[in-house]
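Why Transcriptional regulator? Reviewers of the renewal asked for a concrete example.
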Amino acid sequence: MRISAKADYAVRAALELAATEGDASVKAEVIAAAQGIPHKFLEGILGDLRRGGLVASQRGGKGGYRLARPADTISIAEVIRVVDGPLVSVRGVRPPALSYRGPAESLLPLWIAVRANVRKILGEVTLAEVAAAKLPGDVLGLAEDPEAWTNP
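Here is what the prediction returned.
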């Protein structure tokens, strides 16, 4: 699985909004500067998040962007899906739509298992947890494995 720049930027922008106090709106320029995201690219991402129902926007002097729902109800997976589509695909196809023959037959359950694990982590971790640096114990456990930090 690859995390695209668009998905990474979208999650980082959503985290900036999650860290905002109350219902205050944040201007795109502020988010872009805080996270080092190109402003024009961010505007498109925020538009995707708005159309996906995760972000609300307001025009005017006090305008900007805010989360459309509480941060503890928005998973990281939701943000990624809104900007990039399915979390796991093989050649652009969702695993259940695939079929293999012969010695490759067992690839399908392998891809399904990969998808299930990605969903488990990204689908259960919320913006609020990441913004507060309070990741679930099982996620921290995976990240604490020294092998997780190395490239084979």
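The two ends are 16 Å apart (CA to CA). This is the kind of structural detail the renewal will allow us to pursue systematically.
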